[in-house]
Amino acid sequence: MTTNHDTNPLTHDELYQFTGDDERYRHPFVHSLIYTPGVKHLAERAGAYWLIDEIAFAIDGDEVWKAGQRDPRIRDLHFWKLEVKPGRSAELTAKADSGEQPFVSREIHFTDFSLDHIDIWAGFDGRHWTLYLPSEH
After folding, report:
1. DSSP secondary-structure letter at 22?
2. Superfamily for domain range 24-136
3. pLDDT in tens, 2-15
């Protein structure tokens, strides 16, 4: 079956149209995680709800909590990046800031994700973690 993301791949330019909005969507399993229309659009168009899940489960798990104990900045804000490699494997990382070593690193053995990379930021407001695109900041 051909899906929309196969015939009309998502582009970075398409995502730049998202510049901030009050609407949010709640993750179905990690209720403390919400995400913006830009992240929802990314997941729908790229067939990548799995990417939201990977980030949500990492935030909800011990890995991010332990990293936040070592570096308090991580308790409020961190930066996720998915980089797709030429063989269609990928690496998902989370950092406290650019130039820092990742505190989360996941190897994805295969993906059909249509972009070569994507950045998703995660911010905590005291109640919810919000995933958003950099253009939505």
Report:
1. S
2. enterococcus faecalis protein (3.10.450.150)
3. 344 557 889 999 99
